[in-house]
Amino acid sequence: MAFEAEERPDRPIAKFESMLKTDDVYFFDAEDFEDIIHHYLNNGKMSLAKKAIKIGLTQHPSTIELKLLEVEVHVFENNLELAESMLDSLQTIDSNNEEIYIQRANIFSKKDDHSTAIKLLEKALSLSEDAIDIHSLLGMEHLFMDNFEEAKKHFIQCVLFDEQDYASLYNIIYCFDFLEDYDGAIEFLNDYLEKNPYCEVAWHQLGKQYFAKKMYNEAINAFDFAIISDDTFVGAYFEKGKILERLKRYNEAIENYEFTIEIEDPSAFAYLRIGKCHEKLGNTELAKLNYYKTVHEDPLLDKGWLAITNFYMKQKDYLKAKEYITKAINIEEENLFYWEKNAYINEALGLIEEAEMAYQKMVDLGDCELKTWLLWSSLVLKKGDPHSAIQILQQALEFYPSNSDVLYKIAGAHMVLDQTIKAKEFLVKALKANTKKVAMFKLEFPQFKNNVWINNIILEFGNSSK
């Protein structure tokens, strides 16, 4: 049975949901269905949106707007061929409907054909009286193509229409940042703030622009205005803290970081920065306490584990440092930075085998840095294993075929093995690459400092070091 008019829910959404709970069917205007469908689409309730479309088209089968919403759902679900077919039919009925061009643009965007999507959106723009949403879509398409100047123009149109459109405001600043046009961003934000003096988002973004230009006092003032506009704006406190830390005003920085903890749930990043500040102030116990809080709050934050490891390394407490870097590795075994610290700590403790394993793990994880090969080979040379050192350095040569540091080390390793011909070959290559590194070579292999044939080769290349 149908409700009497006065018994039915007033709001279309409540009325629609009431209908779904019963066997009754209520009649809705086409505009009501549009509102209902938009509500569900905006809230991610796709199944309810599809039900509303189905019922809406049953009651209003010729309504183009409802059919276009059905197309939008098909595009969202990647039923692109079906969506295009429906658009072809709709275009024969209403060739000047901008929504048809918008949905076609969405299809081409999904196919990564952004230039075609832009042309279709420009056509839609020429047909539309309400162009703001189209400007937003055009901005995004230009972003996909890295056309930052064009994207910026469209997002500016969005903000001119709606000063509270913070998504577009952020996108404008993103474009300025990518173009490294900090002065342009500052000018734009100051103009915006003339009209919106209490917009904490704009003050916050202005502060970040000043920070990028190292205009620290101006940045602090901007963050202060952001805080005046909204004294619960965590981002402003945090950014202000970072600048105060940069200016070595550590106690003030700590205060700002602590505000963020008071306002919101504790943050591992805040504890980390507080710990760093206390360490700079020489408050070792407070630094250590905050580093502990950092890793407790977020065990996956590698900067936290590295901070507490570095803390103990600076104190030359390598056993404690090893304890914490081992905990870190147990949580995230594939973290390259952890293995780098592990190698250094084990070498400092004289645990050569474990240090070697750490260097091997670093290479297995894709570390191809020159420093890694050189440190690893130096370790095995100290261990008295020139054969392994040569194997390691040969791998380094694949990435750095003309690097003099690698070539000198290989020459030295061959000399240790009395492989004179090979030693000469690599020494000559090293000298051709860089004669200035001879002094370092002699420091690393002092046993060959007075070797006659080595000095003769060096003289041939006019090296002043004898």
TrEMBL record:
InterPro entries according to UniProt: TPR-like_helical_dom_sf (IPR011990), TPR_rpt (IPR019734), Ycf3 (IPR050498)
Keywords for the protein's UniProt record, in alphabetical order: Repeat, TPR repeat
Renumbered ranges of TPR repeats: 98-131, 234-267, 302-335, 370-403
Source domain of life: Bacteria
One Pfam family matching this protein: TPR_6
Name listed for the protein in its UniProt record: Tetratricopeptide repeat-containing protein
Organism of this sequence: Cellulophaga fucicola
Organism lineage string: Bacteria, Pseudomonadati, Bacteroidota, Flavobacteriia, Flavobacteriales
